[in-house]
Design goal:
The complex is a heterodimer of chains A (113) and B (112). Chain A is mainly β and 113 residues long. Chain A contains no helices and eleven strands. In chain A, the strands form two sheets. In chain A, strands 2, 4, 5, 9, 10 and 11 form a six-stranded mixed beta sheet that branches. Chain B is mostly beta strands. In chain B, the strands form two sheets. In chain B, strands 2, 4, 5, 6, 9, 10 and 11 form a seven-stranded mixed beta sheet that branches. The chains are: A mainly beta (113), B mainly beta (112).
Chain lengths: 113, 112
């Protein structure tokens, strides 16, 4: 079935790296996304990776994709208190029943000073 | 500026009333979505529309209705049949499959 799994919570200290993991189910997904949600707000796209890539780096963000294991991770280097938010991964399976956009439940990242 | 706008930001509803949440986009996107967000539940799909005058139920459509008369607009009505409507509602749009989704800022609905 269509399901995207994430752990619900992650706590790190300011300045450390954060790694948020996600597993997805549909190998036909062409793009995989990471979104950030701050309290009381909508979701903002952080980054995305095309399925034929295994890594993408964008400033403090590194996305790793293991297509064989259907595992996606988001690494945030030098985590700051402003990074505290909920992070969602999303896949875009072809022929999906949800309009081709499926989200995980979100990982709440807490950054301690 | 192009974007997707939800209104109102906060909405209070008395039990037994229908209320309509607005979602408008000027991004020329074909697909639009409504999600409900509850603490610890992530995003649950209510309805989506991939083209004007057509829409499909998502996982939790009961007690909700939508219309898509114009490409720019996808209003959501929360009817009195929805037993637990208090939640944060998010609208999103996409140009087409395999493109990123853009989200509105959400509407927080509270039943009083």
């Amino acid at each position: 079935g269509e399901d995207v799994e994430q752990s619900l919570f992650l706590s790190v200290r300011e300045g450390d790296s954060s790694v948020i993991n996600c597993t997805y189910t549909d190998s036909s997904s062409t793009y995989l996304y990471w979104y950030k949600q701050e309290p009381g707000a909508g979701l903002q796209l952080l980054t995305y990776i095309f399925s034929n890539m295994d890594m993408k780096q964008d400033q403090r963000l590194t996305v790793l994709l293991n297509k064989k294991d259907k595992h996606l991770s988001l690494r945030i280097a030098d985590t700051q208190t402003g990074d505290s938010a909920i992070y969602f991964c999303a896949e875009t399976p072809r022929g999906g029943s949800q309009g081709n956009l499926i989200f995980g439940k979100g990982t709440k990242l807490s950054v301690k000073p | 500026d192009g974007g997707i706008t939800q209104s109102p930001k906060y909405l209070f509803r008395k039990e037994g009333q229908n209320v309509t949440l607005s979602c408008e986009q000027n991004l020329n996107h074909d697909a639009m979505y409504w999600y409900r967000q509850d603490p610890g539940q992530g995003l649950r799909l209510i309805y989506y529309s991939q083209i004007v005058n057509d829409f499909q139920k998502g996982d939790i459509a009961e007690g909700y209705s939508v219309s898509r008369e114009k490409k720019e607009s996808f209003p959501l009505t929360v009817t009195s049949a929805q037993k637990n409507p208090t939640a944060f509602y998010l609208c999103a749009s996409r140009l087409q499959a395999d493109t990123e989704a853009f989200f509105g800022q959400g509407t927080r609905l509270t039943v009083v």
